[in-house]
Amino acid sequence: MRGLVSRRSQGPAAALLTICALISGCTYAIGESAADPVPTPVMQKAAPVMMVVGDSFTVGSGPVPAWGSYASETARLLRWQPVIAGAGGTGYVNRGRVGRNFQESFEAELAWRPAPDLVVLSGGHNDRRWTTLKVRQAASSLLWAVRGRWPETRIVMLGPLWMGKPPPKAFAVRDALAEVAEREGVHFVDPMRRRWTGHVLPDGVHPTAAGHRELARWLAEKLKS
């Protein structure tokens, strides 16, 4: 019949496409090329990376695991990716039971990684038994190490965390760290400017899971600003 094309007149290529469509479920129509470009899926932008060096407040303690600490919760609120380093009992100077201070934790756990978007140096609680001179020297050394490794990465220093009333020596450590931050042009965030009560573990030192969430909401707002 006129106006209709017989299967015989379609040629081998058209016949092959017809068979493909019937048997293998090909989705392109007759006349289209199998080599036509496939739409590229939209790639989501990678979440910013926030690295945190700290002590037991940062890595979690007691019933609070690392993924429930204020550091992880802060990253979660900001929709960032956390990478947490450090150990309980450590500080800028103090090595604790693990036998390393903050700079040694940084070098062992973080320095070999690709550059993050932000590094938070959090602590000083365990440095109260050391002289402020030692604390300043150790904090400066760590800052120089971070900058030397990642010159473009932003750095924030978070002062000592105290859930109760801080002893006088804690304020001396806080002031020493704030002095280093100012001298080095680093933003300093001071948790001791407010009281953290009501969410403390039975040890009287560390925050509960609710306390970590409260700290995280506060820190997330500070980092946003």
Automatic annotation (TrEMBL):
Q: Which residues form the signal peptide?
A: 1-29
Sorted alphabetically, which keywords does the UniProt record give? Answer: Signal
Q: Which SUPFAM superfamilies does this one have?
A: SGNH hydrolase (SSF52266)
Write down the CDD domains for this protein, in alphabetical order. SGNH_hydrolase (cd00229)
Q: Which residues form the SGNH hydrolase-type esterase domain?
A: 52-213
Output the Pfam families linked to this UniProt entry. Lipase_GDSL_2
Checking InterPro entries in the record gives: SGNH_hydro (IPR013830), SGNH_hydro_sf (IPR036514)
This one is known as Lysophospholipase L1-like esterase
Species of provenance: Nonomuraea soli
